């Protein structure tokens, strides 16, 4: 198969082409800069930007892949979760392409896409393993046995803010812009990660070992900044950014390794936008090396939203002989991963 993947759930418009687990090429456009002044994604602006980006980005992906539109054998598209207005644009585009080419259409869960992204870099997914999804809207620990068969145990989630959301909110209160992850990392480079002892939530005995909470951390950073300003002291942005980043990384790594240990898993895969974070990648690698666990993290381009990861899932569904979803598929903005791949009727 030559599978076209379409992604539009948030502020990236992505098209990617995958064949037999191999990335042929992709095109991506982002409206992130249009949201910068608001400190977060504005759904209407995102939807309008998707509309503008669909045709040129599709063309870019075909050119990058050296594939003609007519060569596409299947179309896969993010049907949820995500911003409803944004998901609808990609879904409409994917339906139009599938209809025009008379090719089958598969709805794909956005988080299944994130989880599958790594196979494009490092080959077939492990038979089983722990997957940590850390993105703008999710912080989920999964025990994944088979993505295609939905054989997934959802171990835990954030109780409040997602990890990426914490980066975005802290960036906003430090006046660093949006998206928060890259700007905080840049600000943190020369900072001391032990300068401030910010809280590491949900790590005490008796706490849910697989649940996360980041709103207290965000509040602690806000209080620190307020106090410094009240006292007329300079705000050491680099130290605060580094200390905040370290607090997030410590919790993510501790819980992911705990899950590997508890469940007897030999492989940890970290995916989603926050997996682009260098401090997280470094610390996770050290911890996995020490524990004898194989760490898989995709390249930065495949961590944040993209169409290739959606094509990767579509390609797996096709090769597993799964029924397509059909053109009647509708958006499911709050789709649950464990039910992701059940083909909808029609
Ligand atoms: P979801 O996948 O949950 O629907 P999303 O699609 O918006 O959310 P992604 O595109 O996967 O999320 O990731 C975006 C998030 O990743 C943002 O919150 C951004 O701040 C964060 N991020 C991106 N790069 C980095 C980085 N280098 N360090 C930390 N966080 C990062
Ligand atoms: Mg994004
Ligand atoms: Fe995402």
Automatic annotation (TrEMBL):
GO biological process: tRNA threonylcarbamoyladenosine modification
A Gene Ontology term for the protein's cellular component: cytoplasm
The reaction(s) this protein catalyses: L-threonylcarbamoyladenylate + adenosine(37) in tRNA = N(6)-L-threonylcarbamoyladenosine(37) in tRNA + AMP + H(+)
Keywords (A to Z) from UniProt: Acyltransferase, Cytoplasm, Iron, Metal-binding, Transferase, tRNA processing
Boundaries of every Gcp-like domain copy: 23-311
Main subcellular location: cytoplasm
A GO term for molecular function: iron ion binding
Needed co-factor(s): Fe(2+)
Compartment list: Cytoplasm
KW Transferase (keyword) present: yes
Matches recorded under Pfam families: TsaD
The enzyme's E.C. designation: 2.3.1.234
Cofactor binding annotation: Binds 1 Fe(2+) ion per subunit.
Binding site for Fe cation: 110, 114, 305
Enzyme class: transferase
Binding site for substrate: 133-137, 168, 181, 277
SUPFAM superfamilies: Actin-like ATPase domain
Domain of life the protein comes from: Bacteria
InterPro entries xrefs: ATPase_NBD, Gcp-like_dom, KAE1/TsaD, Peptidase_M22_CS, TsaD
Family, as annotated: Belongs to the KAE1 / TsaD family.
Function of the molecule: Required for the formation of a threonylcarbamoyl group on adenosine at position 37 (t(6)A37) in tRNAs that read codons beginning with adenine. Is involved in the transfer of the threonylcarbamoyl moiety of threonylcarbamoyl-AMP (TC-AMP) to the N6 group of A37, together with TsaE and TsaB. TsaD likely plays a direct catalytic role in this reaction.
UniProt name for this protein: tRNA N6-adenosine threonylcarbamoyltransferase
